[in-house]
Structure formats: C-alpha cells, structure tokens
Amino acid sequence: MTRPYRSALYIPASRSRALAKARTLQTDAILFDLEDAVVPSEKVAARAALAEALAEGGYGPRARIVRINALETEWGRDDALAVADMDCDGVLLPKVNGPADLDALAELVGDLPIWAMMETPLGVLNAASICAHPRLAGIVLGTNDLAKDLGTRSSQFREPLLFALQTCLVAARAYGRVALDGVYNAFRDMEGLAHECAQGRDMGFDGKSLIHPDQLELANAAFAPSADEIDLAERQIAAFAEAEAKGEGVAVVDGKIVENLHIVTAKATLAKRDAIEELEGA
Ligand SMILES: CC(C)(COP(=O)(O)OP(=O)(O)OC[C@H]1O[C@@H](n2cnc3c(N)ncnc32)[C@H](O)[C@@H]1OP(=O)(O)O)[C@@H](O)C(=O)NCCC(=O)NCCSC(=O)C[C@H](O)C(=O)O
Ligand SMILES: [Mg+2]
C-alpha cells in the first residue's frame, strides 16, 4: 500500500454543500457517489456537478474515487464515460459479480484505476477472480447490500457477515489490493462505530468507508498504528538487528520471539506511520 486509506468518506454528488465541505475534511479518500445516495431524478445533474467540482479542485492529497451506477442501469455507461474525463484517481463499480464486470468497465474508462464494491453473494463467491483482475486497485465492502441479499438480521458484532468480510479480505490480500470495510449506518453512535472500526482493523482491513464527517476522527485513529505499535516495531527492529549482528536469527522482545517475518510487519507499521505523516503534512 503506497498511501493510507484509513478513512473513505462517501459524498452524495448531488449535495453541493457536502462537495464543498469535503475539501476541508481530514479524510484519506473521498468516495464521490453517483449511485445509491443520489435519487434517479438527480443522477444526470449530479454527474455534471461532480465533474465541475473536480475540475475546480481543492481536494488536496485526498484520493478522489467516483462511485458510478452499475453498467446495466440507464446511467452506468454515461457515468463511466464521464468519469474517464474527470480529474479523479479512481472509479468504483457497485455490485460487482465477477471479473467480466470489470472487463466491461475497463473498456470505458481508459487507464483509470478501478475499484470494486463487494456487496453481492456472487461477488463474494468470485472474490478471488475479482481481486486477481489486473486493473483492480482495491475493494470496498458494501455491507448494507450484502445484508439485504443474504437476508441477515443486523447484529452488533456482525457475525452473519464475517464469512463474506473475511473471504473478500483474504482475496484482496492474496492479490495485494487495498481493502476497505463497509459503512456504519448509525452515524451519531460513536461507541458503536469505535467498536466496528476496531473489529475491521483487527480483521486486517486498511480502513473504513464512512457516511458522515463526524465518523472521520475515530476511523483515522483506529486504522493508524498506535503509539504502542510504533514503539514495539522500533524495538523489534533494533533487537533483531542486534541479534543478526551476533549471527543469530531470533531476538526476544517483551518475552516474545522476533523473527524475520515479524520484522516485515514492524517495517510495514513504520512505513504506514510515515505515509500518514506525509499525507497529513501535505
Ligand atoms: C447521513 C446524512 C444524510 C446526514 O446529513 P445531515 O443531516 O446533513 O448531517 P449533519 O447536519 O450532521 O451535517 C453536518 C455538516 O456535514 C456535512 N455533511 C454531512 N454528511 C456529509 C458527507 N457525507 N460528506 C461531506 N459533508 C457531509 C453537511 O453538509 C453539514 O455541513 P454544513 O451544512 O456545511 O454544516 C449525510 O451525512 C449523508 O448524506 N451521508 C452520505 C450518505 C451516502 O453517501 N450514502 C451512500 C453511501 S453508503 C452505501 O451505499 C454503502 C454500500 O453501498 C452498502 O451497500 O453498504
Ligand atoms: Mg451498496
């Protein structure tokens, strides 16, 4: 991962105040939405407003990703052709069922990096071949659509969704793609959000998709390395270097062994810290 994706805020492209406000928000990525957050009567106007906002600029280092309507809808194809000309960093396709959906999009968007919403049962079953697609940059879990299609009841710890979440995450990791967790709908409930962010981070997601600016701070903190993790990483690297200098392949830190593979994780932790510092200083 070359840049942090701790937070990815959805912004309905039909909301001009939100489009403007996003220029000031501490979000690593923006998911400009032309799909579910925009009513059919506003789809075409929202597409034009978004193109204008992106041309105006001011979004700084935030990754600008546009979620279009599915290609089978009456807006999808025109969205894709329009996004290809927008000043953005990626295009997000909803309800991806398999790699053929990505092939179809790739023909319309030039070199733009492609992201896939993982939010259908078929998409989950095909997660490996979707993540293997050469044009794919990352995936975003669509837990609302998944819950709808699976017929699950909502549950505090998301047990009914865990298989789908983990299947998608494993596929993303197998092919080196960014993986973003789904949204937390109760946007005034910070305690619930904190729990879900911690769960997503523990599972291995790079960050969380969000729906309201008030959710940013928690997600940014949860998906950044903690002070303790940074401290441990630094001590592991130092101890392992010392062990290696003595011709040993194992060090011990805090009573636990440290081998080469732990150093890979430790270096990744420090690289993420540096990437966050760079992004926030930009
Ligand atoms: C949920 C909301 C409708 C709430 O909006 P609102 O009532 O306006 O909230 P506030 O009054 O608290 O807003 C305070 C200010 O913050 C701005 N704001 C609000 N939301 C956003 C946002 N997402 N991005 C940027 N700015 C935002 C307001 O404009 C206020 O600013 P100001 O007027 O200057 O004071 C609303 O938050 C919202 O629409 N959120 C996004 C919803 C959305 O995008 N949904 C679709 C994506 S989720 C999804 O589809 C997941 C997936 O597909 C799945 O299947 O799970
Ligand atoms: Mg959805």
UniProtKB/TrEMBL annotation:
Q: Which cofactor does it need?
A: Mg(2+)
SUPFAM superfamilies the UniProt entry points to? Phosphoenolpyruvate/pyruvate domain
Key word Hydrolase present: yes
- Coiled-coil annotation reads none
What broad class of enzyme is this? hydrolase
Instruction: List the EC numbers from the record.
Output: 3.1.2.-
| The HpcH/HpaI aldolase/citrate lyase domain, residue ranges | 6-213
| Residues engaged in binding Mg(2+) | E119, D145
Listed InterPro entries: Aldolase/citrate-lyase_domain, Citrate_lyase_beta/mcl1/mcl2, Pyrv/PenolPyrv_kinase-like_dom, Pyrv_kinase-like_dom_sf
Keyword ATP-binding (UniProt): no
Q: Which UniProt keywords apply?
A: Hydrolase, Magnesium, Metal-binding
Single GO biological process annotation from the record? oxaloacetate metabolic process
One MF annotation (Gene Ontology) recorded for this entry: magnesium ion binding
Residues recorded as binding substrate, renumbered to this chain, are: R67, E119
**What does the sequence similarity comment in the record state about its family?**
Belongs to the HpcH/HpaI aldolase family.
The name this protein carries in UniProt is (3S)-malyl-CoA thioesterase
